[in-house]
Amino acid sequence: MVNKILIPIDFRVESLNTLKYCLEERKQEKSSVLLMYSAYSSDSITELLFYKPAKIIEALVSSNFNDAINIIKNTYESSLHSFGIELFHGLNRNAFLNFYEANEIDLVYLPKDYCLKPYKNGFDPIPLIKKSKVQFKEVAWTRDHDATNKDELNQLFK
Amino acid sequence: MRSIRKISIQLIISISLILIFLGSSVYYYLSNYSYADFYKRLEARVSVAEKYHFESNQKDAQVLKNIRDEHLELLSDEKEYVLYCPNVNSLKQLADTNSLPINFLNLVNSQQFANFQKDDIFYHGIKRETPKGFYFIIVSAKNYYNTHHLILLKKVLFAGGFISILIIIYFTYLFSNNFFEPINKIITKVNSISTNNIHSRLDENKNTVEINRLTTTFNNLLNRIEIAIETNKNFISNASHEFGTPLTAIIGEADVALLKDRTQDEYKETLQKILTQSERLNKISQSLLSLAQIGYKDNKLNYEIIRTDELVMQANEIMNQLIPKNNIKIDFDLLPENPKKLKILGNKELILLAITNILTNACKYSSNKPVVVSLASTNNEIVMVFKDQGIGIPESELPFIFEPFYRASNTAAYDGYGIGLPLTQNIIKIHKGELIISSVLHKGVTIQVKLPVATL
Using the beta-carbon criterion (under 8 Å), do B443 and A76 form an inter-chain contact? Predict the structure, then answer.
């Protein structure tokens, strides 16, 4: 059976370490991964009228982030069954549980030490997820605390 | 300057054409309308006259007369004719006696009613047949409106058009001057910048976006030129320093040795020192030569398909021989599952040289602290990441580190002459790759090398 895994991200290379360690841990089985970015939905009517999640995601993906995703996809080609990015606009526990059920998620992986740094209009969903009493696992990695705050591809490497 | 004149002339001509077109169409349609309208008025008078003369009794005639006097304004030179015509042959005589145009009477005769204009007099007439023969009922008048109002309109249109064209010429001149003024300013300013005052920049004009973009482009260009000039200066001073140091040592040694007679051992020692320095000089000139060569001869290299993971292993073996105390760790965690994505097209010796150069630097400037080499692959690029924990590079000096002979300010304690990194950069460049350096002072340097995956 393919397990579906949810990982919150902030579209920065460093947050993909969760994905990397998650896939490393589950190398023996096939898993399907859904990356989730949480953002407040817009309150402008025109924006809601022309709401296209794919466009929002496209605008947020930087070339470094894209490279990092491709690196991970190439590395775990055989164990990665499917892969997707979704936007989550909910604000409370029920909204998250809805999202969780609608996407048939089995397990959530969270970063332990890394704190998501979402872009404008985004928020950090980790407290919400922890409160939702869904099954989650935390992964930790050694972080270059002194590294520059820039979003660089090398943050994916040891 | 010429384009100012060209634009303004084009603008003036096109606007004048539009004005002329507008004026003449106003005139044409209004005069057309005034003719039609005037004939309608004549028609109304004719029909009143017809009713008055033929279809009314005494009482009605009085009413009609009143209506005509009260409501139908008397036109200038208005004349009313009710002409009896016993037969067609008397038309000519009828026309002559009433001084009416004969053509008009013929028209009325053949068409039952007709409009006619002779000079500035307008005619409308109808033919009414009675048992006794037929009558012509005709009203003629001068079109006062046509003669006066239209002439006035013509004058107004001409004068207005002329004045508007003058105003347009004035404004066009003003606008074109205003439009080109910032460009002229930029031209004067750029002309005034030479190698002596290369640090001066154009003032940014916040009002116009296009001009602002132009000035920013110029300023960026000037930045790059300034850096190029700066690095050129650096190169000369660094190169003369690099060549100068061993030469001074050689001269000094020889001088001291020649001061007085020495023993054979002392001569030997001196010669040995001179030899070492000469070797160093030789090495510098050799590497300078190879740097120059790699910069040019990119089509003479023989390229082959190489697996980068093997390359990294080989580089590691070379490093073990060169610096036995090294602490290089190879991290293949992110290696792609598909080995095809690890293959690149390149010259094996050169890329090996580039990797060992980077590794030598990493080991040297970190005093053999751990250096991690990672290898990964996106869909079209191989990414090699070299992380060390060395002394780092000051951020202000990052733009210059690819310059031959440039050495960062904190490298005095380490041996080297600043050719390795430019050489590496050139090698990566001729393989259409990318070398990205990021650094935190005292914490270490991270070098990313991206090379395009070979398409098989």
Answer: no
